[in-house]
Amino acid sequence: VKRLNLKAVHDDEIQGLLESLGLLEVVKSGHAICPHCGDVVTVENLNCIVPRGDEILLVCSKPDCIESAHPAPRQQ
Amino acid sequence: VTPIVISITVPTALALALIYVLAHPERAERIVSWIFRLFASVSRFADRGYVANDIQANVNDFCAALNRTAPGVIPHKLKISWVQTETREAFLRNGEVIVRLRHHPDQDRNLVAATLAFLGRGMLIRARAYMDVRLSRSIEIIATRKILLGAKRHHALDYFHNEVLEPETQTTPGLREDCQVLQLLDREGYFSRVLLREMAAFGNRVYPGMPNANNRDQVRAFLAFLQTIVAKSRGEDVPLRFVTPEFKVGFVLVARHERRQDFDPAPYVEAIRRNFRDGAETVFLCGEGENIDYVKAVSRRLLATKEGVKEEHVYTVQEPGGRTHKAICVILGAPRPAPHVEV
């Protein structure tokens, strides 16, 4: 049976990942906005990171926002 | 004697364990998750190992069970792969979402988030585009509930109800009603073995056509057809065939009370044949309680003539008051046409 890959970042590595993506300062300065609800995204309430065209979207942890954020994971 | 006993039992036990793991990989994930769980409070590696393996075990356990009752509904297993760093360019090029998973004390929340993310993309892959968004979401909700209930994760279920389901039902009119219909189908054993199975077949029939309103209407009509059957009272006549270009399904229910004296399978066999003649590709032969033996008698008659018995499921129906009873569903495929012979 093939597997669907769901990429995940652990709590311990979230800041490192944001830094490698060049987004840590944006989040820490309070300028990251959830594209679905418009709330400020912080390191605490960040739920997923979404590639969209040339942009990277940071989505907060509200269930509605999470639901609308997931494109298909890739098959292995 | 002891070294000899050890030299025999240890390799035998290891060989049996290996065979078990190979035969039930999802169980192996669960065992691994238990081992990681022991050390999750003192080791970051174990914490990650527990979080990922616990989610995979629960979701993949459900997928394995679902694929036994409704093959092809979730064709893939879940694999969680951890990301630590990634360049902006590589992330945009790969195009995959990264989900945040928290430390193991928040595992209920992790399980709900990962399950929804997986089901949202891994279940009914083809059919999803051809049904309305609300129904698609309702199916995910019922499947998520089944995963959490199956895993006996009652705190996760509470979190799901309070933090996901309630807010969504308040903001999405009709979602609660859809979920109630699906819940009714599930209670009667029709959610996976009839609805999901037929939705997967529907997806294969309409794919790769352009999704349109008619597709969505047909799915809704099929759901209403199933709802009528499960909600009908004993002896009530309701439509038992749903044959359209998108769905080709028939039901034969055994048996009416007055027909049970001197039970004869012949009328039921004829009803099944009539369904196939009228275009059904799958016929569900169902009964419950004392009628199970009669269903089996019809099934045996069909097997004797090699008439398309694909699967026989005996299962337990949970009644609203907490009582249970047994039911049976025999799934029949259309007999293959005789090979054409050139004269």
Please estimate the helix content of chain B: 55-70%
Secondary-structure-derived class of chain B: alpha+beta
- The count of helical stretches of chain A stands at 3
Number of helices of chain B: 12
Q: In total, how many beta strands of chain B?
A: 7
Strand order of the largest sheet of chain A: 2-3
Compressed to H and E, one letter per element, the order of chain A equals: EHHEEH
Uncertain runs of chain A: 71-76
* Oligomeric category: heterodimer
Q: Major β-sheet of chain A, in short?
A: 2 strands, antiparallel
Mean pLDDT of chain A: 85
- Number of DSSP-assigned strands of chain A: 3
Encode the helix/strand succession of chain B as letters.
HHHEHEHHHHHHEEHEHEE
Beta-strand percent range of chain A: 25-35%
Average per-residue pLDDT of chain B, rounded, comes to 88
Dominant shape of chain A: globular
Main sheet: strands, sense, barrel of chain B: 5 strands, mixed
Strand order, largest beta sheet of chain B: 3-4-5-7-6
Helix content of chain A: 10-25%
Q: What secondary-structure arrangement, pairings included, does this model have?
A:
The complex is a heterodimer of chains A (76) and B (343).
Chain A: E1 3-10, H1 14-20, H2 24-28, E2 46-52, E3 55-60, H3 63-67
Antiparallel strand pairs in A: 2-3
Chain B: H1 2-23, H2 25-39, H3 44-69, E1 77-82, H4 88-94, E2 98-101, H5 107-122, H6 133-150, H7 154-171, H8 175-187, H9 191-206, H10 213-231, E3 241-243, E4 248-253, H11 266-277, E5 282-288, H12 292-304, E6 309-318, E7 324-333
Parallel strand pairs in B: 4-5
Antiparallel strand pairs in B: 3-4, 5-7, 6-7
Provide keyphrases for this structure.
heterodimer; A: alpha+beta; two-stranded antiparallel ribbon; 3 strands; globular; B: 343 residues; alpha+beta; five-stranded mixed beta sheet; 12 helices; 7 strands
Please provide a written account of the structure:
The complex is a heterodimer of chains A (76) and B (343). Chain A is built from three helices and three strands. Chain A has helices spanning 14-20, 24-28, 63-67; strands at 3-10, 46-52, 55-60. A two-stranded antiparallel ribbon of chain A has the order 2-3. With 76 residues, chain A is α+β, with helices and mostly antiparallel strands. Chain B has 343 residues and is α+β, with helices and mostly antiparallel strands. Helix content of chain B is 57%, strand content 13%. Chain B is built from twelve helices and seven strands. Chain B has helices at 2-23, 25-39, 44-69, 88-94, 107-122, 133-150, 154-171, 175-187, 191-206, 213-231, 266-277, 292-304, and strands at residues 77-82, 98-101, 241-243, 248-253, 282-288, 309-318, 324-333. In chain B, strands 3-4-5-7-6 form a five-stranded mixed β-sheet, with helices on both faces. The mean pLDDT of chain B is 88. Strand 2 (46-52) of chain A pairs antiparallel with strand 2 of chain B, so a sheet runs across the interface.
